[in-house]
Amino acid sequence: MQSMAFYLLLLLSLTSTTTSATTIGVTYSTPASISGSALLSPDRIAAKVVSMNIPAVRLLDSNPAMIRAFAYTNVSLFLSVPNPLVPLLASNRSLAMRWVYRHVLPFHPRTKISIISVGNDAISYSPDVSPFLLRAMQNIHLSLADLRIYKVSVSTTFSFFNIVPTAFPPSSAQFQNPNGDVIIRPILQFLERTNSSFLINLFPYNMYRSSFSIPIGFALFEEFPFNFRDDLTTGVRYRNLFDMMVDAVISSMAVMGHENLPVIVAETGWPSSGIDASEVDATLLYSEMYLKGLLNHLRSGTGTPLRKEGVSEVYIFELVEKEAKQGIRNWGILHHNMTDKYSFEFSDGGETRRFVEVLLGFSVEVVMVLYLLM
Ligand SMILES: *[C@@H]1O[C@H](CO)[C@@H](O)[C@H](O)[C@H]1NC(C)=O
Ligand SMILES: *[C@@H]1O[C@H](CO)[C@@H](O)[C@H](O)[C@H]1NC(C)=O
Ligand SMILES: *[C@@H]1O[C@H](CO)[C@@H](O)[C@H](O)[C@H]1NC(C)=O
Ligand SMILES: *[C@@H]1O[C@H](CO)[C@@H](O)[C@H](O)[C@H]1NC(C)=O
């Protein structure tokens, strides 16, 4: 009977981890070139996303036709306000209202809009619009509230490399000053007050490239005996670079007293080709290993050492390759012509089914063993 209780507990823990798994979406931006525009019409893109069973999309340019195309699909959308608009929306409430009138009001709630990012990596954008971020976020938030739209949260997206100077050990990471105190701290307060999330672009690829001491397997979720890093302050062992970077963000928020804010990884990925010969690790094999490893890790529901439930959402950069040519970084999970680039299934429908089958098989076995023992 003791073992029965043990197996029940095991079963319970296995099932509960699957329910807490992260939502995995993709990013999409309209290509600059107009060739193939018919192929990439908003309706085609939305239909492709639905057919791939992708539950969430981050639109990097929030084209209203694209927002409309996702009506009645159950796909949740993450919208973005472009950086050049940030100072305008900060200084003029009626312009913020206008943005909401154009991008949210006509579509909500038929299109599920979950969050609006005001700006994307505004700190590195030139001219620097980051001093206007908070006011612009407040104006969008107030405009939504004026229209009684409470389910759409407002935030902004930072880039890991521009705000967290050192990621190891994660427990001693801090936001870089002066931006930490001047820009990020008041934004964290706003996010806490409005139940929003902290959005971060996070690329282990860039950190791997900038540090000779990181083994490739640690960046690619490979489980080798020596692929780990111990954080001696917390006594925590890291088995992949992604978790380490996420925990560096969580520690940095904790320093400012906001360790419980939900974290959304607004962009991540690994390029399958590089700009030049120096990018030897930008290969199709490695990008496939990164994506597969990331999906398996997120679906395992184990979270990170400092955040048991894990990040709430992750967006893979990006759905469709921008151009079919050499000498650029290609990140798409689909080719330029919308055909599959990788052999693995992006959708987790199949995985879940297989997992349930394994679980069922497992419990049948437990019952048989118990029966034999009695
Ligand atoms: C959307 O979700 C609702 C509730 O979960 C479901 O009833 C409906 O069939 C879904 N619609 C589509 C198009 O998947
Ligand atoms: C704010 O924007 C509105 C709408 O575009 C415009 O009419 C108004 O002049 C602007 N106000 C200021 C102070 O720029
Ligand atoms: C934030 O969420 C909490 C708990 O879900 C809820 O009680 C509170 O009303 C929410 N606040 C806002 C401003 O939405
Ligand atoms: C789509 O593009 C890829 C990569 O450029 C190419 O290998 C493939 O043959 C193309 N497929 C079709 C059907 O055009």
From TrEMBL:
Keywords: Glycosidase, Hydrolase, Signal. Transmembrane segments: none annotated. One of its GO terms (molecular function) is glucan endo-1,3-beta-D-glucosidase activity. It comes from Arabis nemorensis. Its EC number is 3.2.1.39. Pfam families: Glyco_hydro_17. SUPFAM superfamilies: (Trans)glycosidases. InterPro entries: GH, Glyco_hydro_17, Glyco_hydro_17_plant. It catalyses: Hydrolysis of (1->3)-beta-D-glucosidic linkages in (1->3)-beta-D-glucans. It is an enzyme of class 3 (hydrolase). Residues 1-21 form the signal peptide. It comes from the Eukaryota. The lineage of its organism: Eukaryota, Viridiplantae, Streptophyta, Embryophyta, Tracheophyta. GO terms for biological process: carbohydrate metabolic process. Belongs to the glycosyl hydrolase 17 family. This is glucan endo-1,3-beta-D-glucosidase.
